[in-house]
Design goal:
single chain, mainly alpha
């Protein structure tokens, strides 16, 4: 199991518990854990960027990533999954 799979399992576990809990403080803690896992994955991925990739390509890729995440979370809220 590689590092990204471990982070995915961590985020998935915390996402499930965030959906099941009714306490707002506990839910905030779970969301902070999820955000921490995402930042950790992005940082780990940033360490493995090939040296011939330019800064503009990295910014372009991060823009696409954040737009995709925005659309996904909007869809999840639309279908009332989160």
């Amino acid at each position: 199991m590689n590092f990204f799979q471990l982070i995915y399992a961590y985020i998935k576990k915390n996402l499930k518990t965030a959906q099941e809990t009714e306490d707002s403080d506990e839910r905030k803690k779970q969301w902070i854990k999820i955000v921490f896992g995402i930042v950790l994955a992005l940082g780990y991925g940033g360490l493995h960027v090939p040296p011939n990739v330019s800064v503009s390509e990295v910014i372009y890729a991060l823009g696409i990533l954040f737009i995709t995440l925005y659309v996904v979370f909007r869809a999840l809220k639309y279908f009332k999954l989160i």
